[in-house]
Amino acid sequence: MTTQLDAPDRFLVGSHAGEPSDAARPARVVPWRRLGYGLLGVVLAAALWELVAAILDDPVTLPSVQATVHTFREYLSTSYPAGGRTLFGHAMVSAARILAGWTAGVVAGIVIGGVMASLRPVRFLLDPLIEITRPLPPLAFIPLFIVWFGIGELPKFLLILVGVVPIMIIATVSALDTVPTELIQAGRSLGASPVWALVTVRLRAALPPIITGMRIAMGGAWTSIVAVELIAATSGLGYLINNAGVNLQTPLVISGILAISVLGIVFDGLLRLLHRLADPASR
Amino acid sequence: MTTQPAVQISGVHKRFSGRTRRSPARVALDGFDLTVRPGEFLCLLGPSGCGKSTLLNMLAGFSLPDEGSVLVDGEPVTGPGPDRGVLFQTPMLFPWLTTRDNVLYGPRARHRLDAQARERADALLASVGLADSADAFPHQLSGGMRHRAAFARVLVNRPRLLLMDEPFGALDAISRVAMQRFLLELWERDRITIVFVTHDVEEAALLGDRVCVMTGSPGRTRALIDIDLPRPRRLQDTETLEFVRLKRRIREALEAEAA
What is the pTM of this model? Predict the structure, then answer.
């Protein structure tokens, strides 16, 4: 997985960026058109779903959009299974697991990546380990973690770490590597002490691509947590989906999937906002 | 002579270790001497790899000589500092700061951010023609504007010495001419000592009081040529006979080295 989504040459602000004149470029216009087309796409997909559901006429195979929305709203406040949590409650359980594992993984990844980018021996030591573990899907560890740690919260937390930490290490190292030496030298020659330049130039310049890494890691964290909840959990959206599927409650299965989607959009939206705050050029 | 030289470089050696154990170390500078007078505009001219950027890096304090001494105002250079303003090939503005905050980076880093520094920053931005773009981010500026912002960012520290490493090399021809004119006006006004690295013969002859022509690796001074053209200089001066004659002298010095 490449984490260099931000081009390394975003600092090379020479004159070849294609400015027509010596005037400041106008601010970007809000892309309403794009938003309109995006909404249209969603509406068309829902219409197609409704059409296929009407043709099939079998709510177990594919419930209608209305039936699904109805189920979604009903189970927001209805326990499932009886005596258990509501859809909202399961969503919060999953979200809490995600946030705990992802936050710990992000912090660990940034710290390890920062040390690797600064100390060559550490880098040479850890590089092969990361290369070995990186191609492994975290899901392959589920049986092992269940054997080792049972079905409590610990294996879920660790599984998210397995997915998040390598992504964050790679993102952090490459982000710090692509900060041009001259940018740090510029800070130093303007009067910054080595530590001040490290914090206000090197780390600051690396922040936008690190946030991009955090977004990618968030996607991985969702994959891990839903998978482990499908297999070994008594709460969470993965558990709800699996249980509802076993009982052929298709509208509830789809409701669970939609809930994951909503949470994913919310988390990613917050991270995109963070990225915008960190990188004025992306506004 | 009573005045102390602004820059005194004597007997400087600098070598870089080879990539592999067997490849020999590359000698960038081998006993280099140079003196720059206060207020002088000195151009370092030479082919790539002649050590002119190495020299500038040592003046800036980014690297230290293996042997010999580098003195700025009589004091040895031990590291980077705000008394020596550095302008890089690209403006190297901080993309996450507005133009004004880029200019205020120096005062902030030195913990000298007060009302006076803010006033000075705004005055400097106005003097480089960026008063209206103070709150814009670097990506919203044109190439020439970014270079002028970089000038303001360096000048806010009141440097004794300006070090420029092919600062206009990445600009298109029209912006480059505008920046040369801008730099000449700035120097006429402030008379800061400038060491200017370039590989452009015409640029060196137009801007400099003296041109130091350097030989290829290891770097040595090939010739020191006085540019005794009257000041203030204008772009039209490049069409005069004296200018063309000076250009030929510089070029001959460069080519004598190649032969």
Answer: 0.82
